[in-house]
Amino acid sequence: MFAGSGYVDTYDRHGLLGRSSVLAHNVHPTDDELALLRSRGTSIAHCPTSNAALGSGIYSLARHVTAGVWVALGSDVGAGTGFSLLKEGLQAYFLQQLLGEAGYCLTPAHLLHLATTAGADALGLGHEVGDLGVGKPFDAVWLRPRPGTTLDIALRTAAGPEDAVARAFALGTPADIDTVWVDGEPLSMDVQRVLAGHGGHRRGTM
After folding, report:
1. Which residues lie across from 70 on neighbouring strands?
2. Whole-number Å distance between alpha carbons of 162 and 179
3. Mean pLDDT of the chain, nearest integer
4. Helix crossing, 85-98 with 161-171: angle to 10°?
5. Which of 3, 63, 122, 144 is the most exposed place for a label (fewest CB within 10 A)?
6. DSSP E strands: which ranges in the chain?
7. What is the pairing mode between strands 43-46 and 177-182?
């Protein structure tokens, strides 16, 4: 609280809410705050592993969606457990399941959207990046698990694309990242090692 006002109202009174604003967490919003966020076009970065680690509450995704507030996945390593949006997506699914009927039933397609296009939209860049649409830069991550690993077998036996995405979120880790492209160019192996969360040896790309 600040001078008797809540966070959202304080930000708004100081001109800090707008289309370019992205607020983290927002676990306990009031209906009035959600309406204000919607009217300002402000986005929320949902950081589920951080919320779970802190025990700060379970994010009300359904209320945000109903109110028309932009939402994307985020990774808060101040309290969370890493940068991987695969892990954040899986944790988001778990937390919504815990809410029962009040939760938002996240499908594999929802998780992929929250980890990609929704992030671009939150930053006001949806017209430039966030998907593999024609005319957009090729930004992509290639998950290629080592042969014989659990994820490798799971992907090879997936019933279809949606099932494969579900298994990638359930079992994938940064160590399964083979190549990362930004604007059509593969990042250096040193950068990819940082993204993978370790400095060990990585096999070459094909």
Report:
1. 43
2. 22
3. 91
4. 100
5. 3
6. 22-24, 43-46, 70-73, 140-143, 177-182, 185-186
7. unpaired
183 touches 193 (CB < 8 A): no
Region of 197 please: left (phi>0), alpha (psi -120 to 50) or beta. left
For the stretch 6-15, contacts whose Cβ atoms lie closer than 8 Å and that sit 24 or more positions apart, written own/partner, are 6/30, 6/33, 8/33, 8/36, 8/37, 9/33, 9/36, 12/36, 12/40
CA distances 105 to 53, 59, 76, 114, 165, Å, are 22, 13, 23, 13, 16
Residue for token pair 């966020």: 37
Amino acid at 66: T
pLDDT of 154-206, one tens digit each? 999 999 999 999 999 999 999 999 999 999 999 987 776 666 655 443 333 32
Q: Which residue has the higher pLDDT, 195 or 49?
A: 49
Give this prediction's pTM. Answer: 0.89
CB 37 within 8 A of CB 45: no
